[in-house]
TrEMBL record:
Binds 1 potassium ion per subunit. Homotetramer. It catalyses: (6S)-NADPHX + ADP = AMP + phosphate + NADPH + H(+); (6S)-NADHX + ADP = AMP + phosphate + NADH + H(+); (6R)-NADHX = (6S)-NADHX; (6R)-NADPHX = (6S)-NADPHX. It comes from the Bacteria. This is Bifunctional NAD(P)H-hydrate repair enzyme. It comes from Autumnicola patrickiae. (6S)-NADPHX binds at residues 58-62, 131-137, 160, 326, 377, 441. Its cofactor is K(+); Mg(2+). PROSITE patterns: YJEF_C_2 (PS01050), YJEF_C_3 (PS51383), YJEF_N (PS51385).
Length: 511
């Protein structure tokens, strides 16, 4: 699903109004009716007090339509206008008239702190104060109003996006932003819903299709793409009946050191459970029996050194080399990595200490094969590119970095982002149960396993991240968030593939 910017959405609105020959008020009615339908489906006429807070722009107009429909369906509704200026939008005004005609209980105009209404814990608050039109931080009593709603502990549903949140920048410390429990957003999700700095404001999220012009939506270049099941499915290559293990490639996983051989077992298991035809590990001698015992399916080559990598001697013609997990950063290991880079031409997967070595030895970046996939978590990324001011600054710095070095970067997190040239792919599977040691090692194995099966590195990264998260979701379904260990994610990879191609998505409990 495309993620668009506020200006692209405004353009889509205008084109839709023109091409469908409707008024902006009709489009507002259509959008807000979708919100009403969602609320009605969930509340089923429940007798609770719904407090709708409307601004005076089009987000406020949406709020008025939602309130009118709720009143027409006999809900107990109280409407408040956060009347911070007299500059009301046209469609706000016509809906203001409509709601006044409908009920004697006119909307209450709020003009300052003294007017703040009571909000109780059990109330249902609809936040339609500001949407994508916000252009500066909230100030004065309006900011206080937002904080007042947040302090109430009422359930808050935000319309389009939480009021106070921008679509293209991160609020400053102390800025007032609604902390929504749920956000119903129009047509496309906004990028800020997935950034670590801002995702907590959004709560659970659902996107409502409001019928904007299809041609515009299919042609517009998105700010980013959200990868869900449908997108992942389109990337999948089914296995050919007439095939053999050689058809699915050979992965070499290089890394490990004394006490950290487990990371190799995890990555290698993951690559095989993702479908690689053959897997070889190259590890220090201390890991020989461990790997042979834990994973008899893999072949093992060892370094001359017992504890760490010092000389990576392989003349195997692998389809992909994955380097770094558990490798450590000893001088001799750095030297061995340097030699490995020199003799590798095909795209590699680099994780963990591979990334740390690159951070400390910047000159090695130029030896990375084009289209290699780097998989840092935020700390590893900071070591690679330096500090950033906020998430938008981070995105800019990452894009500069990947273009300079002609690589693909997988930034791991609650929503993992894949960066390739100008493109950004945002993952929507996975859950907090995956915040457990070794789940990153599993991801590297998954991506390497896909590359060995001839998926392009970018596709391997995007699909791999999706499947890894889905396997985490399936694991959580079986074991609970706390119960997952990263080996489960590797073990359940096959179920993630099955889910991808089955008729119905597994109810994964993704969070
Ligand atoms: N395709 C869509 O996405 C649709 C969007 N609609 C709604 O329209 C909204 C956008 O409406 P608007 O453009 O009127 O904008 P908003 O309703 O988000 O904001 C209202 C106005 O407040 C002013 N303002 C901005 N920052 C302020 C601040 N800090 N303090 C005081 N005033 C400030 C701006 O001039 C803006 O025009 C969307 O979020 C959505 O709710 C729907 O009605 C129709 C379809
Ligand atoms: N809260 C979360 N929600 C979704 N996925 C998560 C969450 N926390 C961690 N993950 C996923 O788990 C993996 C953790 O990787 P990493 O930090 O490298 O762990 P390790 O170094 O222990 O292997 C990443 O793929 C990340 O996206
Ligand atoms: K809002």
């Amino acid at each position: 699903m495309k993620i668009l910017t506020a200006s692209q959405l405004k353009e889509a609105d205008e084109i839709t109004i023109e091409k469908q020959n409707i008024s902006s008020e009709e489009l507002m009615e259509r959008a807000a009716t979708q919100v009403f339908n969602e609320i009605h489906t969930r509340l089923q006429g429940a007798d609770i007090l719904i407090k709708v807070f409307c601004g005076i722009g089009n987000n406020g107009g949406d709020g008025l339509v939602i309130a009118r429909l709720l009143i027409e369906h006999s809900y107990n509704v109280k409407v408040f206008i956060v009347n911070y200026s007299d500059n009301r939008s046209k469609d706000f005004l016509s809906n203001y008239d409509k709601i006044k005609n409908l009920s004697r209980d006119w909307p209450v105009l709020l003009k300052g702190e003294d007017d703040f209404p009571d909000i109780k814990r059990g109330d249902f608050v609809i936040d339609a104060i500001f949407g994508i039109g916000l252009n500066r931080p909230l100030e004065g009593w309006v900011a206080k109003m937002v904080n007042f709603i947040n302090d109430s502990s009422a359930f808050v549903l935000s319309v389009d996006l939480p009021s106070g949140l921008f679509t293209d920048k991160i609020p400053e410390e102390g800025d007032a932003v609604i902390m929504a429990n749920f956000t119903l957003s129009f047509q496309t999700p906004k990028l800020v819903f997935f950034l670590p700095d801002t995702m907590d404001f959004v709560g659970d999220m659902q996107v409502l299709e409001i019928g904007l012009d299809r041609e515009f939506l299919s042609e517009v270049t998105p700010a980013a793409q959200l990868i869900g099941r449908q997108e992942a499915r389109s990337l999948y290559n089914p296995r050919n009946k007439n095939s053999h293990k050689g058809s699915y490639g050979h992965v070499i996983i290089v890394g490990g050191s004394y006490g950290k051989i487990g990371s190799i077992v995890l990555a290698t298991t993951a690559s095989m459970r993702t479908g690689a035809g053959l897997a070889t590990v190259f590890i220090p001698k201390c890991g020989y029996e461990i790997v042979q015992t834990a994973l008899p399916e893999a072949m093992v080559l060892t370094d001359v050194n017992y504890e760490m990598l010092t000389d990576i001697k392989t003349d195997l013609d692998a389809d992909v080399v994955c380097f770094g997990m558990g490798a450590g950063r000893d001088k001799s290991t750095v030297g061995a990595f340097k030699e490995l880079l020199k003799k590798t031409n095909k795209p590699m997967v680099i994780d963990a200490d591979g990334l740390n070595i690159l951070s400390e030895n910047n000159e090695l970046l130029q030896d990375l094969p084009e289209n290699s996939v780097l998989t840092p978590h935020p700390k590893e990324l900071e070591r690679l590119i330096g500090e950033w001011k906020d998430d938008f600054d981070k995105i800019e710095k990452v894009q500069e970095f990947i273009k300079k070095h002609k690589i693909i970067l997988v930034l791991k997190g609650a929503h993992t982002f894949v960066f390739e040239q100008e493109n950004i792919y945002v993952n929507n599977t996975g859950n907090a149960g995956m915040a457990t040691a070794g789940s990153g090692d599993v991801l590297s194995g998954v991506i390497a396993g896909l590359i060995s099966q001839k998926y392009e590195p970018l596709i391997a990264a995007v699909l791999g991240v999706y499947l890894h998260g889905k396997s985490g979701d399936i694991s959580a379904e079986k074991l609970g968030y706390e119960g997952i260990i990263s080996g489960d994610i590797a073990k359940n990879m096959g179920l993630a593939f099955r889910d991808l191609m089955s008729e119905n998505e597994t109810d994964s409990g993704a969070g």
